[in-house]
């Protein structure tokens, strides 16, 4: 069974974020049409929103477990990374500055003056760069993230969405064998979403090009930061997450035993509880 959020709230969020929904807000403020979803009323005093930044090649489906748990006390904003789903896919390679500009444009379009960041993998990496550039960002929660491009295996989860067998096989790098065996229905659902919405091989490579070494200036990122990492992460070694937390002036590390790269799926309740405590 998924160690996740409340099933009814999660199901509703999964339905909203699933591929194929029309009428979604979008912005072209960065010169690229970016779709995003908003939810929640933002009842936590002093914080306007939490923005979720997605991992390499993934659609917004990956945040259903966390967005459902935080919507309400926080206003949530879930952009779709350029090249994926209903967002535009301009020619690559993409620069990290472009992805930061996309985040800034979405927050402006959504009327957000102050936001916490929850980012996974590439999204967490973009969050680090964004925190250095954008004054409107507050706390950072980084999942399976590294400041070192060489520490991220960009091929581990890569799969052509037109090849369902390849997509299913690639999940061995993101989810532990014990989780996949215990939750076949979750795996099936993720495979369905990925074949519908994830990046093509060309876009995957374009996004991967945005990884830029941040180790030399991490001392400039003074945002309070919590680094989550599955201790069985086969995409970004947990040691890289520990180094990231150590090198950030206000960084802390939380390892999750027996969880892989997609720790927000495998250990959703643990991650969500820590997010509430940290962001609240």
Distance between the termini: 27 Å
Portion of residues in beta strands equals 15-25%
Radius of gyration, Cα only, in angstroms?
17 Å
Total beta strands: 8
Oligomer: single chain
Order of helices and strands: HEEEHEHEHEHHHHEHEHH
The level of helicity is: 25-40%
Q: Looking across the biggest beta sheet, what order are the strands in?
A: 1-2-4-3-5-6-7-8
- Helical segment count: 11
Tell me the name of the CATH homologous superfamily. Answer: Alpha/Beta hydrolase fold, catalytic domain
Query: Under the CATH scheme, which class?
Result: Alpha Beta
Q: Would you identify the regions where 5 or more consecutive residues have pLDDT less than 50?
A: 1-23
Question: What can you see in these coordinates?
Answer:
This protein is an alpha/beta fold and 280 residues long. It is 38% helix and 15% strand. Helix 1 packs across helix 2 (64-70), helix 2 (64-70) crosses helix 11 and helix 3 (96-109) crosses helix 4 (122-133). It has one domain (7-279): Alpha/Beta hydrolase fold, catalytic domain (Rossmann fold, 3-Layer(aba) Sandwich). Strands 1-2-4-3-5-6-7-8 form an 8-stranded mixed sheet, with helices on both faces. It has helices at 7-17, 64-70, 96-109, 122-133, 164-170, 177-182, 184-197, 201-208, 238-247, 263-266, 268-279, and strands spanning 26-27, 34-39, 49-53, 76-79, 115-120, 137-143, 225-230, 251-256.
């Amino acid at each position: 069974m998924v160690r996740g959020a409340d099933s009814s709230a999660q199901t509703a969020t999964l339905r909203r974020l699933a591929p194929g929904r029309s009428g979604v807000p979008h912005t072209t403020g960065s010169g690229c049409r970016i779709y995003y979803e908003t939810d929640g009323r933002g009842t936590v005093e002093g914080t306007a929103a939490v923005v979720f930044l997605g991992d390499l090649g993934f659609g917004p489906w990956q945040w259903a477990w966390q967005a459902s748990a935080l919507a309400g006390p926080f206003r949530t904003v879930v952009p779709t990374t350029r090249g994926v789903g209903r967002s535009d896919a301009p020619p690559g390679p993409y620069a990290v500055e472009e992805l930061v500009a996309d985040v800034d444009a979405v927050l402006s379009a959504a009327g957000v003056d102050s936001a916490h960041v929850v980012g996974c993998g590439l999204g967490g990496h973009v969050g680090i760069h964004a925190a250095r550039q954008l004054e409107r960002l507050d706390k950072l929660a980084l999942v399976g993230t590294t400041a070192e491009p060489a520490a991220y295996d960009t091929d581990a989860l890569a799969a052509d969405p037109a090849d369902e067998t390849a997509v299913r096989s690639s999940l061995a790098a993101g989810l532990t064998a014990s989780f996949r065996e215990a939750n076949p229905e979750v795996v099936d659902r993720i495979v369905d979403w990925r074949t519908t919405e994830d990046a093509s091989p060309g876009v995957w490579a374009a996004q991967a090009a945005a990884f830029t070494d941040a180790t030399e200036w991490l001392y400039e990122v003074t945002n309070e930061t919590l680094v989550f990492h599955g201790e069985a992460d086969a995409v970004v070694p947990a040691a890289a997450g520990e180094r990231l937390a150590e090198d950030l002036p206000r960084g802390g590390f939380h390892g999750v035993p027996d969880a892989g790269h997609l720790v927000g799926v495998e250990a959703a309740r643990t991650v969500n509880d820590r997010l509430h405590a940290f962001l609240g």
